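Narrative progress, year one. The postdoctoral researcher (J.K.) led the effort to move from monomer predictions toward full complexes, under supervision of the PI. The following entry was the first complex the group processed end to end, covering 995 residues in total.
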Amino acid sequence: MTKTGKYIFSILVIIFLTACTNKKNNKIVIKFWGMGVEGEAVSRLIPEFERQNPTIKVEVQMIPWTAAQEKLISAYASDNLPDIFQLGNTWIPQFVALDAIQNLNPKVKFSKNISSLNYFKGIWETNLIGKAVYGIPWYIDTRVLFYRKDILKKAGYDKPPQNWTELIDVSKKIKTLYKNEDKYAIYLPTNDWSIFVIFGLQAGASLLKDNNSYGNFSSRKFKRAFSYLMKFYYNKLAPVGFSEVNNVYQAMAQGYFAMYISGPWNVKEMKEWMKGKLKNEWMTSPLPAPDSAGIGLSLPGGSSLVINKKTKYSKESWKFVEFLSSPKMQLEIYKLTNDLPALKKAWKDSIFTNNKYMKAFYEQLGYTKPLPKITEWEQIAFSKIQQYAEYAARRKMTIDEALKHLDADVNKILEKRRWLLKNAKDYKLR
Amino acid sequence: MKLKNSTTSAAYIFLTPALSAIFIFFFIPVLAAFIMSFTDFDIYSLSDFGRARFIGFDNYLQLFNDPLFWKALANTFYYVLIAGPLSIFVSLSAALLLNDKLLKFKSIFRLTYFMPVVTTLVAVAIVWRFIYHPKFGILNYLLGFFGIGNIDWLGDPHYALPAIILMSVWKNFGYNMIIFIAGLQNIPEYLYEAATLDGANKWQQFKNITLPMLAPTTLFITIITMIGFFQVFAEPYIMTQGGPLDSTLSIVLYMYREGFRWWNMGYSAAIAFVLFLIILIATIIQFKIQKKSAML
Amino acid sequence: MKKFLLYTFLIFTAFLTLLPFIWMLSASLMNDGHASVYPPRFLPDATTFIQYKRLFTRLNLSRNFFNSLFLSITVTIVSLLFNSLAGFAFAKYKFAGRDKLFNILLSTMIIPAQVTMLPLFLMLKSFGLINTYFAIIIPGMANVFGIFLIRQYVMSIPDSLIEAARIEGASEFQIYRKIILPLATPILVTLAIFSFLGTWNDFLWPLISLTDNSMYTLPVALANLMGEHTQDPELMMAGSVITILPVLIIFLALQKYYIKGIMMGSVKG
């Protein structure tokens, strides 16, 4: 073969390779993207689905949580979104604004097994834009307090802290146990925006104002929560850096800190690390309330299943959603990933009723408040709240400065939204 | 020699594929990016181009007031100004050592030092991320023998950028070393012979012969090294995601984040153009310095 | 004595240079968790290929390996063809504005590629080419540096050879094909290595323009994997070995051309 021949040949090869995708012996192939462990878990449930639906084949792709957002949007931008995918429920507004996902109202209306009544109310609401539901809750999470019973006891607390005063009090007492040791009472990593938002919501702050078009972080209520949290860093009750902690479970087992706020995915790992003497020395509890004793608000987190608006296989995709939403599969996903089922019915199973760590989550799920449903929320939370929380915690800025800058940055981010609210008639997110 | 018309047209035909590819997929995008940097093209505009507005110099003004941009700029300059000279120094030292005529196994040493250059940056960044691990990494283990305590290389804002620089120097010095060797071999031998006759010692020879003769090579190396370091991206992306405290955020990483994570593409384009401008100015300055020192 | 010190120093430096590779290779042969111990192990206590097996079975890295290989080869062939044609034209033909055009091209080398990425993404998106092989091939089809290198080399080929061929009635393409290409082989090999390694190692653009696991090149797949397996150094090291090994082999096999190419590129920067 001559050189020119080779060039032509290779070009043909390219064309051939790009042309021959997606044809697999006459079966309909639907693509599913799942994130992290969920992506991995789903592939184990698929054989059952394919057995029930012999004409459908499901292709699963796993994308890492750390890059999920940019991957999904660049896939959207290039028309490469899968037929059906997992979406963190705070991301739904963004994908609705992009007109990327289907309004599922018509489907839910005629569905045999999916109805809003079967889900936790706070969770279902995160999937609503106006009256239309865009995602079906798949698994849910909410943040609760994980704590070391033994250490709290040493500090004089037989029960977990019930309100903010107790929380900081117990932290101070724990810290005095260690004197000069490099140990802390609580872990509040500044690269987790949810902590700052949760305490803000507990203090009754509205994070944004004027139809979610301006930041409201300098408000008295948010400032109260923010200043409260900063006390933990300033008094060395919580480590400022987060890289010292490679493995939170290990750190908790070593008593590097005695409390931290996180979600249900920790329960399994925690059990693995808290062994031997430590086995019964940790517990979960709903979050403390700001003032009187009770349960403080948390976030209705979790992931939903959404369907690509441009999919050719809408019906088949919905079948898969229904499949994953059956009580049986909901339990299955819990067993594989420890993700809490979104379906209330699944919680009646003995797996949950016999699990003492789950009670806190169930209780906490009654006390949640959704985040602002706007496209820009992700950017505000991930880039701005975390940035200024870290600056304040490390005393690069005073609390007032940090919040002022935060508001200014947020207002800048929301400028486009204000313009759209004013000028674009079809702009959906009022 | 006079060429026929047909040969001229052959030239145009030969040029067409490459030039049209460069024109369509390089020149036009550059122009488009320039225009884009004056718009607020964002995530809303992806679904409807009509939602992008011309906003004049707003992006550039906003950049000017953006502390994160200044942080990224400062980090990048820190990177260029530390890693650049450091890597050039290491390369030159290696080249001088390997230029010894009597040295055996020269090519093996040369090859070994060069190996990191050809390897995939993403892969070696991952390897180094584990080398820098505060507890299990081999670096802290080795430093332990010298009584240096555990350093959280990538987790401490003071060490993260130096750690990345150290890796970059390791990765890149072989490249410049090769070019220096080539430069050294171009220096005529008789210059040294004459100097020896005049009684100049090794250091004087180095100062008065080697360095001036290497000046063009050094300029070239300085420019390419600098341009390369201005564009650092994969190292912080893989090793630190720009953290801690944005201490490793580079301009290109910031551009990527704004453009392809938050889809503020107009803003991102403005960042790209500022980067271009900086590289341009830095290159011109390099040439000016070179010219001046050549005249002395 | 001085010699001894020199050699000791050189060997020590060489060892330090290789140390990351040595550790990478040995960690890749360890079982789960064996690289996360203190003090670190420099050699696996029990050699296992389980990490490699995992990468090629469950994590399907062979697909990414193929993508990288296929794209690197294709980009190399296409860019060699385009660049050599243009380099030849610039070196051996006289036409109006030739030098001006060439200088304009050269001056664009200072524009960082990142500038083009946003519009290029939107452009290829509108052609429906994002997440296809074309997204990688198209921007790599021609580059100024390649044209420059080939032009420099071809200029050193005597005109008389070309004239003689013309007198014998050879067409211009035949001259390119039968005279220029064979004589320019060394520089073509050099350029081929540059281009292959460049495409293989590239990260930012594939990260942006490929969205599907099955389309990822090795570096992107590796970075993706890193997101999920931060705690698994053994697996990640195996992935790194797979990514690095092919380029190292190619380099070691063809290092003469490669190093010559770097030296040439530097002569007239």
